[in-house]
């Protein structure tokens, strides 16, 4: 009877991933622990699966997506009331969205148990910008722009070469400085590696109704950031925005 109950999740084993901190940065590796606690009956666990997940907006609503997934594949038997701890390294990929605006990111841990409801654990993360991306944000702020919104959106055609079904878009609006009155907003999509940050930039100029309806007020370009020097990035932004204002 205990086996039957465990198969529908009653008296099942439990799993809990313990992170040293909820705050992470893309590109780093986090040392964590996975605690597995036995239920009311012996159960065979085929693998411990990990997924870093987020959600993104589509034309039909929101959809969940895996940013990264991996497994601890060793088989293990979990006896009743058994308690076991496993060390694990969780890589935070560069493609992990930053948790600002309407963006959530979480780690989901799952025990793979045949003929049973797989026990799960869900831990939300606070994902901060990388130093290069933060420097880019600071440079825009120096130019009079303020952060307005951020959201993950579907990218079905892989326009940005991110290798994912979505991208994160950051929107900034000028509140002061030389671009106030000239630009409506600047939108950024970031693609980063260990060596550099590529920013895909969409510049929305302030125009009349007809030009906005025809999208003649928009220009797209890109720039590459290899430094965290805010002054250098600010001047690169200034030149880029001057060309498209």
Notes on the protein architecture:
The chain has helices spanning 2-7, 131-142, 209-213, 230-244, and strands at 14-18, 23-24, 29-37, 43-58, 61-72, 76-78, 83-91, 105-113, 120-127, 145-154, 166-174, 183-192, 197-205, 218-225. A hairpin with a 4-residue loop joins β12 and β13 (197-205). It is elongated. It is built from 4 helices and 14 strands. It starts with a helix and ends with a helix. The chain is of the alpha+beta class. α2 packs across α4 (230-244). Helices cover 16% and strands 49% of the residues. Residues 1-11 have low confidence and may be disordered. Strands 2, 4, 5, 6, 8 and 9 form a 6-stranded mixed sheet that branches. Strands 10-11-12-13-14 form a 5-stranded antiparallel sheet, with helices on one face. Strands 1-3-7 form a 3-stranded antiparallel sheet, with no helix packed on it.
* Tally of DSSP helical segments: 4
Overall pLDDT confidence: 87
Termini separation: 72 Å
Question: How much helix, percentage-wise, in residues?
Answer: 10-25%
User: Percent of residues in beta strands?
Assistant: over 45%
Biggest sheet character: 6 strands, mixed
SSE layout:
Blueprint: H1 2-7, E1 14-18, E2 23-24, E3 29-37, E4 43-58, E5 61-72, E6 76-78, E7 83-91, E8 105-113, E9 120-127, H2 131-142, E10 145-154, E11 166-174, E12 183-192, E13 197-205, H3 209-213, E14 218-225, H4 230-244
Helix pairs in contact: 2-4
Give a quick precis of the structure.
By secondary structure, this protein is α+β, with helices and mostly antiparallel strands.
């Amino acid at each position: 009877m205990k086996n039957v109950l465990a198969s529908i999740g009653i008296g099942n084993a439990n799993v809990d991933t313990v992170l040293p901190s909820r705050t992470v940065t893309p590109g780093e590796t986090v040392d964590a622990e996975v605690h597995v606690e036995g239920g009311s009956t012996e159960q065979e666990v085929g693998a411990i699966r990990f997924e870093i997940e987020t959600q993104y907006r589509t034309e039909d609503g929101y959809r969940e997506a895996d940013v990264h997934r991996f497994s601890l594949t060793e088989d293990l038997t979990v006896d009743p009331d058994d308690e076991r701890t496993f060390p694990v390294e969780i890589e935070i990929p560069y493609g992990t969205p930053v948790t600002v605006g309407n963006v959530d990111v979480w780690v989901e841990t799952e025990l793979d148990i045949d003929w049973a409801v797989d026990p799960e654990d869900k831990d939300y993360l606070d994902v901060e910008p990388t130093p290069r991306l933060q420097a880019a944000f600071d440079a825009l702020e120096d130019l009079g722009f303020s952060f307005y919104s951020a959201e993950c959106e579907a990218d079905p055609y892989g326009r940005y070469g991110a290798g994912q079904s979505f991208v994160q878009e950051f929107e900034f609006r000028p509140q002061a400085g030389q671009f106030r009155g000239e630009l409506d907003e600047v939108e950024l999509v970031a693609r980063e590696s260990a060596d550099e940050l590529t920013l895909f930039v969409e510049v929305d100029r302030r125009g009349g109704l007809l030009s906005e309806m025809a999208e003649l007020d928009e220009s797209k370009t890109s720039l590459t950031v290899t430094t965290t020097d805010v002054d250098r990035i600010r001047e690169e932004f200034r030149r880029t925005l001057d060309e498209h204002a």
